[in-house]
Prior knowledge:
By secondary structure, this protein is of the alpha/beta class. It has twelve helices and ten strands. A five-stranded parallel sheet has the order 2-1-3-4-5, sandwiched between helices. Strands 7-6-8-9-10 form a five-stranded parallel sheet, with helices on both faces. α6 (143-158) runs antiparallel to α7 (167-196) and α7 packs across α12 (305-318). It is globular. The model has no long low-confidence stretch (mean pLDDT 96).
Amino acid sequence: MDTSRFHDDLIRIPETLSALADAVEAGLPGIEVLPQARNILMLAMGSSAYAAETVAREARAGGLRVTVELASATLLPPPSPDLIVIAISATGGSVEVLEAARRFAGTGRLVAITNRMDSPITELADVVVPLLAGVEESSVASRTFRHTFIVLAEVLTRLGARFASSPAAAARAAAVANEAIFASSTTWLEPISHALKGSSGTFILAPADRLSSALQSSLMLREVPRRPAFGSETGDWSHVDVYLTKTLDYRALLFAGSAWDDQALAWMAERSSSVVTIGRDLTQAVYSLRYPGDEDRWTASLSEMLVAELVAWHWYSADPEFRWSAHAVR
């Protein structure tokens, strides 16, 4: 991992999303030879699993039989003529994904989605579909996270899913949104970074339909500047996380759009929490950020986490040796 290259990876997001839209319209490699079956199982870890859960949730709402499991799980279904398995690994070398995929190798129904066409997962799969995100020099999943949404949606569309946006259109809209967030960052990056940096960590909320945004954002704050961060679903937050507003220096990043936003915000206001909102103007927020397309679920899912990624880079670049922590290895 070369965290110093993280910003170099981020600035290419609009470019690679636009190129991916072109590739989807032209026909992704492997897409025409996908196996067919009644049930779909997706296996992934980390960022790939976050993205898969969000895509699968909408596909299930449209009637597709698709589930997502962490590849590290031991309780997986056996191979079956009615089951397609989609193994997702940006690097193609995640040991948990490889181990799980081996159970389904040789069945004719194992599909791999990866950013590296020369990786071990491609040797197991019957069909390989590329992420086309380019090399992530930092080895931090930023572009591959977004590309997983689009490529998975295109694969599931070919398997019968119906989405609110076509994958290519979603990629194009997200390219515009990410570019706009970058362009405005000179205005918001410093105040948002300050508002979210607390002694107790950063707490990130997102609607169930976009839970991946909270999970990915908290991962970026842990992985890049190595600071504590925690993701929650907005409605569930009132059952599992609200208690901490009473005892901690509570700094929250709220990705708006849940029917339960106001419930969470009421608790945080009552207990003087510091709140930043994305996608909604709110007078009680320390900062509210809007960007083009922020009311569209797909655009938000592919764009809003850039705020946390840039905050993560801001914190890291100011303290690349993690001197903020008494426990950092010198």
